[in-house]
Structures are given as structure tokens and as C-alpha cells.
Amino acid sequence: MKIEILPDLIFYRYDGYNRITADEYVCVRETPCSYWIVPKFYISAKPRLIRKNAERSYAYPTKLEALVSFLHRKRWQIIHLERQLANAKQAQHMANRGQVDEEAVWVPLDTEFIDLK
Hints:
Layout lengths: L5 E10 L5 E10 L3 E6 L8 E4 L11 H34 L21
Antiparallel strand pairs: 1-2, 2-3, 3-4
């Protein structure tokens, strides 16, 4: 099956950890309300739907919009990780001081429960 690419519609998404890259996506189908995009160098991938005029999107028509989205995603990632780190430090501090709930029961994930009815 041959996939037809709409050449004028290129979308961008920044991603990365050690190295930030601008991934390019091409449009393979356009509807009145959305675009169907695939990675530029992996045309046989499953198309991803992105909505026109959406506030947030997976990929954007300009590199500037994609960069703003990347910075926004990383800002939220930092907020969530800082919260997790604070919770872990608090739990470690409480455990070091002996503030452990002795009545709490830990149940292994592979435990099979029997019906006592």
C-alpha cells in the first residue's frame, strides 16, 4: 500500500534528554478538523491524529511552537519530579527517626486471596 504524503504540511516536535532534537512529521491525510501525521523517516508507522486549532498538540507546524511546547513539558516534568523527591526525602527522614506505622500491612503483589465466605 503506497502512502501519499502531503508535501506542504510538515510538523515538528522537540524531544530528548542528553541531546535535544527536532523530529519532523509529515501529513499523510487531512480532514476538516485534523491532520494524520507520521515520522518523516518512518512513513510506515501508525499515523497519529492531531487536531487543528487545539491548545495542546503532539506536534506543531512551526519549530517555535514545538520549542515552546517542549519547554512547557519539561517545566511540568521538573515540578512533578521535585514533588516526588520532596516526598521521598520526607519518608526517608521519618523512617530514620523511627516514625514508622507498625500497624500498616504490606501485601506482596503476587499474593492470592481466598474467598472466606
